[in-house]
Amino acid sequence: MHIDARNIDNNSLIEGDICIVGSGAAGISMALEWLNTPYKVILLEGGGFEYESRMQDLYKGKVTGQRYYPLESARLHYFGGTTGHWAGFCSPFDPVDFKERDWVPHSGWPIKREDLDPYYARAHKNLDLGPYEYDVKYWQDKDPELTSLPFNDKAVFNKIWQFSPPTRFGTKYRDTIVKAPNIHLYTYANVTDITANESVTAIKEVTVKNFAGKQHTVRAKQFIIACCSIQNARLLLASNKQAPKGLGNQNDNVGRYFMEHLEIKSAELWLTKPQELKLYQWDWGVKHRAELAISEELQRKYRILNGTASLTPLEIAKTHTPMIDLWSADTAKTNAFMHADQEKAKKEKSFKSYKAFELFTRVEQAPNPDSRVTLENEKDALGVPRATLHWELTPLEKHSLRSIYKIIGEQMGISATGRVRLMDYLQDENDNAWPSFTGGGWHHMGTTRMADDPKKGVVDANCKVHGIANLYMAGASCYATAAAPNPTLTLTALTIRLADHLKEKVKQSV
């Protein structure tokens, strides 16, 4: 069922059992888990079904620290959310990503990789992925041409990625959500405030507003905030009339530990003879490929973060403009960059042999409490303080990049297959500066991080905000560490896990 919140009476009271705020990958995945149940689900979307500049402006904010993309371009504010321009890259986190690592400050999750495995498998269906198989041998058995570089897998292994078409949630799931009798989708229902009970131990209601001048109240038994990492933190911080520091922020953790993936060209791989390396090449329409990853054993030995290296033929890579220089505030409107990239890739499509490849890194950012989201004095058109993102890196990221390519280079030398040449910015081990082309993957994570101890995080192992009985956060904002893979598969799995937990909780309350 769909209701346009601009067209109902002002100051309407909307009531249900479950209230989901946000309709991106997390919000829609959560709603899908409640289809055909006896519970009334309220799904609140701030925008409509298409891009609108006025809606997108609500995401505008300030950026300080490391150079970053305009905030209003990094997330889409309409039904389907940022799946409207994602590229579909999916791979699960490694077991080491969930562990406390003594060389990575603030690392460690209250759950393990095996806790997510059944939910990863279920998330594959939402994202239109293939079988839940990430063992390179499985794919090589299907295609003998997927030959591997001759690495010792105790040092460097082939980490498999699978690729969603990519699934546009707003397109694929619109009819399912709108036609569901127990799902009540409200568009143009921007949540501007959250109200708790007198003791601030449970949420009573949320306030929604829109540009038609309408304001409504939504009440439910359980609330799930699924607005993306920056907006999740922003909403908690802005809901400060009862808790001066913001809801869930008694230990000043809301908004902290913002993480991105550093995505940056780092080195060149020169082979002794040309090779096709089909296993490592990617193009639009390809279902899977491998990237080079470092074993847990060597991550521990070299005390480095988790990261992967992808291979692009050097003659093609040299024609690519750095992402940080391409992605502007206007790009979100047209998806021009993504569409242009697809067309360019189709023209370049040719799995032929090459001798030289660019090594492009995707490496996790170390959890850093000073990399954070705070509120500005300026307010948006609906009266909510805008967000400021301070993106701050540490020396560990650059140490990790150097070490990753030292390990890969050693393996190339041992096998006499080729050599690795580091880019200039990685040559000096005492230089922690970053080049102008340093960019991120638009992968916002961490601002309501998961931890058993309320002093170390915002939500518990079930994504419930510490100290508030019925308030949950969904999406990558719950990540304690970023790992190397793109976040969508894991955030979808984590959301399905949260849905199962809530179903049990609701059953027990009856």
Automatic annotation (TrEMBL):
SUPFAM superfamilies: FAD/NAD(P)-binding domain. Residues 367-494 form the Glucose-methanol-choline oxidoreductase C-terminal domain. Its cofactor is FAD. Residues 17-232 form the FAD dependent oxidoreductase domain. Pfam families: DAO, GMC_oxred_C. Signal peptide: none annotated. Keywords: FAD, Flavoprotein, Oxidoreductase. Belongs to the GMC oxidoreductase family. This is GMC family oxidoreductase. It comes from Mucilaginibacter rigui. The lineage of its organism: Bacteria, Pseudomonadati, Bacteroidota, Sphingobacteriia, Sphingobacteriales.
